Amino acid sequence: MNRNVLKLLPLLALIPLQLIGFADALPQEPQGIEELVTLAKEYEKAGNANQAVYYYDKVANAYWRANDLRNAIIHFEKAIENIRKVGNSNGEKLLHISVGLLYSELGDYSNAQQSFEEALSIANATGMKQDIGQILQNISTTQIEQGKYQEALVTLGKIEPIAQELGDQKLLRNVYYNYNRAYEGLKNTEKAAEYFNLYAMLTKKIQAEEARKKELEAKAMVESAGKVVQQVAQEREQTVKKLFETSKELDEREQSLKEVEKLTREQQMQIELLNAEMKLRDAVIKNQRLLQRVYVGIILFSLAFALVLYYAYVQKRRANKLLEEKNEEISRQHDAISRQADELRELNALKDKIFSIIAHDLRSPLFSLITMLNIAKEGHFTAESFKEILDELLINVNYTTSLLENLLTWAKNQMHGTKVNPKNFDLGQLVNSSIQLLNETAETKEIKLKNSIAEGTYVFADTDMADIVIRNLISNAIKFCNAGDKITVWNSVAEGMVTVCVEDTGIGMTDDVLQKLFGTQINSMPGTKNEKGTGLGLILCKEFIQMNGGAIWAESKPAKGSKFFFTLPVASL
Fold this sequence. Notes:
- By secondary structure, the protein is α+β, with helices and mostly antiparallel strands.
- It is built from 17 helices and seven strands.
- The strands form two sheets. Strands 2-4-5-7-6 form a five-stranded mixed β-sheet. It has a two-stranded antiparallel sheet with strand order 1-3.
- The protein is elongated and about 170 Å long.
């Protein structure tokens, strides 16, 4: 809670009530709270509402100073009951403000707002715009503390023209501060920053005006000190002149007393000269002391003025730092929103591509398979043509199976997030399993598969993810190889990482195609026998390798084959 904002009217709430006509001729003041309570009740019972209000107010303020806020509220409310009997609306307004401030300190902003609104009703009736503006400012603060940001904005909209009409810069500064808090509560960072800038600029202006006022006061003090120094100098000149005249007078006396006995004359002269010297010395000492006091006063004033300037400088730096932090926060939020928007656009494009694949690439092979099976069922194929159809059906089924597996794996990873379950396993055995599954497809295209990873090459990773990566990379290699080509899987170990390479002697790729392989866009090219693909396989490979702490990349030249590399951590056995 910002008590400095809530207590915009601290003096109004604590003005002694006898100064505004609430007390008669007062007896000797009692010391204890209990004596004050007793007097208040006695005057209330006797029907003397003025005196009852006076003592209830003193009791409430005593409890307030003792930080007993609940008892302070109780006795302020008793004072309000009595003051209504008197009909002094201005005093009632002040008491309501005090109650509102107490509820605010207790964090009871609902009751605080109600008290301020009762004070506002009285202020509206009297038409005192200064009081209306200050009370509305307190109400806006309680609304913000209660999370009633829209209501606070309406209230602040009433205060701002009042502050501008009165030329009250401090009230206007507090209005801008509460605008900033309300818009922060509404998550409107742009508006919050706008009003914070207005608040900071107005605060800077007020501080500059106050510093200028203090500077003028300091100059006046310096000028006054200069006049004192000048007066002391004049007095010193007069003293020297007087001493000169005295000396001259002594000379004249000396001449007139020449006939007097020599011894007596010399003694008298010595006495007079001694007295004159003592007077001169006293005058010099007095002058020096006065000058010392003036110089000390100037030094103390200069130190005080320097402290005021330093305090203003510190406040300025603090405000500038707060502004910089706000600007950095806004910039970070803007960058985060931009990144999220880019990610959403990419995901949306990916979603559209997935639906296109499901609608076309998945449906077409299935319809083709159903059509061929129906024709075969009706006996329209010869044994030789049926064998060719079976080869084509095998390719379609393999493609459809791979597509479904990649689609389901990708969808699971995107919707629910795949949990990595790393463990130590033999990479050579995993590659052997993948080659056995894909060997029939490779033989159909007359392509040789070779595993050059020795058994006993252990890595630490998620086995299922690694299996999907290896099968996708070997399937892609088969897709882009011709009859007689060869696919080899080999590895190397360095710096705690196992580097795996799936190398083929196929048709290779251009630099443009190579750069697009591991992006977020789905790209797919037909194979050497017009095999279709989805482009999802490499996206899955990149995600799974990165989730296991590795990296993936490729090297290729047209007509010179391709090499797909990925890394996994070495197992700690």
